[in-house]
Amino acid sequence: PSFPSLYDVSSNCRWVLTVPAGRVQVEIIYSDIETSANCAFDSLEIYDGDYVCENTKIAAVCSRYPSGITGTYLSNGTSFLLKFKSDGSVSFTGYLIKFIQVEEAVSSNPLTSSDDQLMLGIGIGCACGATATLILVFIVSFFKSKCRSPKIASPRVKTVEPMNGGPHMRTPSVNGSVDSSDSISHSRNGFIRRPLTTSRRSSMIDGKSNGFLP
């Protein structure tokens, strides 16, 4: 008010800048307000929205020209609130502000964005499905290889007839001759028994009497 004359002392003014659609752009072209710490004396405050709230305050101006704050601010919605206050002492020229309506950018083909998002979603889904399939195949193959039992050949076992009491155990006769059954070759089990001579028989009998044979 009264620009470029001095603003009034003890002022407390509010303005709501509203556009029907889009957003509000505020430009501070000039400012000449009493300087003070934390803008305690005189100040111009800009709020995003149509009410005063510390969480929505985006600027606080309180500095003398030519060091006065200038700049451009863009609202998130369709309105800005400007609040100016002054104390009861000195006053200065004040401020000059310009505001305009900013239209939202509209896509020339609204379906393009949705189609692109759909195709992107399909591509990501296919990629994730293929990756999951490969991982599953790898896990199944890994466990099948771990669980498969190796083929172990059964060892060939040969039956060895006992030394005593066998069906073909050589038995000395009463007259000291060797039983003819001792000369039979046992190729059935892969062993060939050698006939005992009279001297070997005598050695075995002597060793047994001396405690060397069972």
Describe the structure.
Keywords: Disulfide bond, Membrane, Repeat, Transmembrane, Transmembrane helix. This is CUB domain-containing protein. By secondary structure, the protein is an alpha+beta fold. It is about 25% helix and about 20% strand. A four-stranded antiparallel sheet has the order 1-6-3-4, with no helix packed on it. A three-stranded antiparallel sheet has the order 5-2-7, with no helix packed on it. A hairpin with an 8-residue loop joins strand 3 (about 45-50) and strand 4. The longest helix has about 40 residues, at about 110-145. The chain is elongated. The chain starts with 11 loop residues before the first strand and ends in a 5-residue tail after the last helix. Residues about 180-185 have low confidence and may be disordered.
Write down the secondary-structure element order. Answer: EEEEEEEHH
Total strands: the figure is 7
Radius of gyration, in Å, reads: 56 Å
State the separation between the terminal residues, measured CA to CA.
134 Å
Shape summary: elongated
Sequence of strands across the biggest β-sheet: 1-6-3-4
Question: Which percent range describes the beta-strand content?
Answer: 15-25%
- Average pLDDT figure: 76
Strand-pairing-aware structural class:
alpha+beta
Number of helices: 2
- What low-confidence regions span 5 or more consecutive residues with pLDDT below 50? 180-187
Helix content: 10-25%
SSE diagram, text form:
Layout (H helix, E strand, L loop, with lengths): L11 E7 L4 E10 L10 E6 L8 E5 L9 E4 L4 E7 L8 E9 L7 H38 L50 H12 L5
Pfam family, one: CUB
Protein name: CUB domain-containing protein
Keywords: Disulfide bond, Membrane, Repeat, Transmembrane, Transmembrane helix
